[in-house]
Fold this protein.
Amino acid sequence: MSPVELPARWRSVLPHLDERLPADRTPQTAGGGTVQVNLPMALVRQSVQLKEHWEIPAEVADAYRAFRPTPLWRARGFERAVGARVPIYVKYEGGNISGSHKLNTALAQAYYYARAGVRELVSGTGAGQWGTALAAACALFGMKCTVFMVGGSLRRKPYRGTLMRTLGATVHASPSPLTQVARQAGGDVNSLSLAIGEAVEYAARTEGAAFCIGSGETYSILHQSVIGLEAADQLAGLDASVDAVVGCVGAGSNFGGIALPFFSAAAAAGEKPPLLVAAESATTPKLTRGTYAYDRTDATGTGPMEAMYTIGSSYPIPDSHSAGLRFHGAAKVLSAMRHRDQIAATAVGQVEALDAGRRFTRGEMVLPAPESGHALAAAARLAGAGAEGNNGLLRAEKGVVVCVSGHGYLDLGAYQQFLDGELSDEAPDPQALRRAVSALEPVEQLAGAGAVHVR
């Protein structure tokens, strides 16, 4: 491991994009008005201003120091296990109370919302890392916290709920009996979009509360830039060079956090950036099989319509143990970059992901979350002996750095099923995918033929 200082500033990729991101489209409410979003102006500015460096507030930096800088090391045991031709470096984000990278933005958001006078933060969570991070951040900044967690995931990982409640949060399994959006959905819908929709509805009717989200927003990805900034410094300290950067993608915050600082640094220097590879779940293949279109971000349909790569918010996503990746769309900044060939994408099944996680555990003595297993599987493909060419399978020639976004110590049920041979991968229904996006309006503003696929 190489020592490094905690970054004093977050770094935004927006100044290095050739075009502005397509504007959001705000839907009309039933009464004909527009939806009011209770978002602190600091977060609004971080989402739209073409400012590259943003000072990390002292209170947030102090909270970061409890667990940052996070370690980076060369994963030699994992390299041997997967037959790597080139070095694989791991940036590990699981060593905090939430067990994942989510705490980086949860602390920042809680700080800004508290300064804006909000007393309660409400959100939806899939695998539970974001809900846990938000509960921890609210406890630190003296706020109430309410979390709607995907019910199937909460049943598989009840101790996520226990941890959130220990931190002072109120936890509801989604679908819950508390919201109209859940009643309209009906049945046992295991959807992060529905959990988010419930949180949006609940926050809108609760005085002093605000909805916040942990992954897809531009300001959230900005806060996660501490990952890539530290990683770049740590690699330099090791005199190591990489030509591929990998992270898993639900909506995109840990991938954006590790990858975009490398893109910004290369752009600022007038150099070619490394290959940036987003590893997504094969059950939710928005970047590899989705459409670049305007879609809603939650099941209520009252939030802004965003330009994103999507498989459609109405698509019934097959169940999997990687609940944190089961979001129908990708962040708008990553979607724009995907559309312009600036990032690549690959889809990984849960069996391959958990196998990569098993190999990593045996080689590195760290148990990764199933979501992180997707990134490790992609890194193994890039570094492995079978990778070839740049038009089909992409390969790394110097080295790979991969973000292991969280630990898997609350995901042992998934590993048990994998070890017992009880897991399989359910392929998305092509017709259902087409139906889910058929009514969406394609994004026409940006030029580009779509990013290279990594199979």
In short: The longest strand covers residues 144-150.
